[in-house]
Design a protein that fits this description.
This protein has 449 residues and is mainly beta. Helices cover 4% and strands 51% of the residues. The strands form two sheets. Strands 1, 2, 3, 4, 5, 6, 7, 8, 9, 10, 11, 12 and 13 form a 13-stranded antiparallel beta sheet that branches. An eleven-stranded antiparallel beta sheet has the order 18-17-16-15-14-24-23-22-21-20-19.
Length: 449
């Protein structure tokens, strides 16, 4: 080989249990194979096939290898042999390393100097990871998902990516068409000799259970080259994509107004406003303020949306109430450290995470873990189940909502035990919650307006 193009930096990765990684947008069993064919309208007009295989895997980390050798390519086709390494996390698919033969000498130089340039766009997977190493593909992939990332050997390539939605695409591997998740990225490189070529608009079509099946890269520059890669064959089987509805949306500036009552302990409604203050990298801060009623409260909550669902990671509230509520546990915590019900979010997140799965489908169940962070905070055991879509009346409106029901037990505390049913609407979030406590009281939360 004439040399090696290699990554000069490796991303720090997350140590996560493989069981927590729910996405299957790039499966990697040991025997998996994919064959792609790619062209470039200016720099590689000869269709070039490259075979991709799984070189190694260790838990959530795995490495793919590709080669153009012995693929029946024309003598004028470029030769490329390389590897690309990934790690699955609940935040998405990360690219951690790469290595290959250099690109053909006719390709633009994607570095500030020619010598020792470790950047290339002369293979399908180089086109996929260019500018989007962390993550390459965000998780979960839900409507409205957007993310920013960087790439290139020197970190000089930036990108902004958006999940466009599901689209049927036809490629040689799926001549009858297959449903894919379409991701659009605006990629920018600055300071390289060939930075117009390193910039442009890229589209990637991901098929669940298979991986990328098509890539187009409309490069910037006067000659406007367009690179295209399509999947020719694979031994992987396409699966229906998971539901992509946002039942717990994280949208900066969103405002929701709720009222909540308890049939025994707070018959006069407490009305509160929830504002999404900040959103970044799949995490959000929500603030809650008092509008009217017996609970004067100010609070803030932190949530994340990852492949394993919507999770509450912190909460801070200050309140004064004219309505006396029964005490909550657990006994293992001093009284001033125990949670209280002062806002609709307190009722929603009480018990254990996740609040709702990323890809919620009817029949999904999960349960509390002992020991765990959640058990240390709440001392609650129980199970949660996705009941499915239901028509639910909230005030004068009727919503088609996803019902999620939890059966909760806080030992020694009847008010902290019972059955909670939460109703979530796509692109809106929580619209209603009914908590039937063990002391025979009922807390009801409803969205106003």
């Amino acid at each position: 080989m004439r040399g090696v193009v290699a990554a000069v930096a490796v991303l720090a990765t997350l140590a996560l249990a493989p069981s927590a990684l729910a996405d299957d947008w790039l499966p990697h069993p040991a025997d998996a194979t994919w064959t792609y064919e790619w062209t470039d309208s200016v720099y590689n007009t000869t269709p070039t096939k490259e075979k991709v295989t799984v070189k190694e895997q260790a838990g959530p980390a795995f490495t793919l290898a590709w080669t153009t050798l012995e693929q029946g390519n024309a003598p004028t086709a470029p030769t490329s042999v390389g590897t690309v390494a990934f790690q699955e996390t609940t935040a998405g698919l990360l690219n951690t390393d790469w290595s290959s033969t250099p690109p053909p000498s006719a390709f633009p130089v994607l570095c500030a100097v020619v010598a020792g340039c470790n950047n290339s766009l002369s293979s399908t997977y180089y086109q996929i990871i260019w500018g989007t190493r962390g993550p390459v593909l965000a998780a979960p992939l839900l409507k409205g998902t957007s993310w920013t990332s960087t790439g290139g050997a020197q970190g000089d390539v930036t990108s902004s990516s958006d999940y466009v939605g599901q689209e049927r695409v036809v490629v040689p591997a799926f001549p009858q068409g297959v449903v894919a998740a379409k991701v659009r990225s605006e990629v920018t490189q600055a300071g390289a000799i060939g930075d117009p070529y390193g910039s442009g608009i890229r589209m990637v079509w991901w098929v669940y259970g298979v991986g990328p099946v098509k890539v187009t890269f409309e490069h910037a520059g006067g000659d406007s080259p367009i690179a295209t890669s399509v999947l020719v064959s694979t031994n992987q089987t396409a699966k229906p994509p998971p539901p992509d509805g946002r039942y717990f949306p994280l949208v900066k500036g969103a405002k929701l107004k709720y009222k909540w009552t308890n049939s025994k302990h707070m018959k006069k409604p407490s009305v509160q406003e929830v504002l999404t203050d900040e959103v970044a990298n799949g995490s959000a801060r929500f603030s809650v303020k008092h509008l009217s009623g017996p609970i004067r409260v100010a609070g803030a909550y932190g949530f994340t949306m990852r492949a394993d669902g919507a999770t509450n990671i912190w909460a801070i509230t200050k309140s004064a109430s004219l309505s006396p509520f029964p005490a909550l546990g657990p006994r293992s915590l001093p009284k001033d450290k125990r949670r209280r019900f002062t806002t609709p979010f307190d009722l929603m997140l009480y018990g254990f995470n996740p609040i709702i799965p990323a890809y919620a489908t009817p029949g999904m169940t999960w349960k509390s873990k002992v020991p765990s962070r959640d058990f240390s905070v709440f001392g609650v055991t129980g199970t949660t189940k996705v009941l499915g879509l239901r028509n639910v009346k909230v005030g004068k409106k009727t919503y088609r909502a996803l019902a999620v029901q939890s059966k909760l037990t806080q030992r020694g505390y009847k008010f902290g035990s019972g059955t909670r049913t939460s109703y979530f609407v796509a692109d809106k979030g929580l619209v209603k919650l009914v908590f039937r406590h063990g002391d025979r009281s009922v807390s009801t939360v409803q969205l106003l307006g």
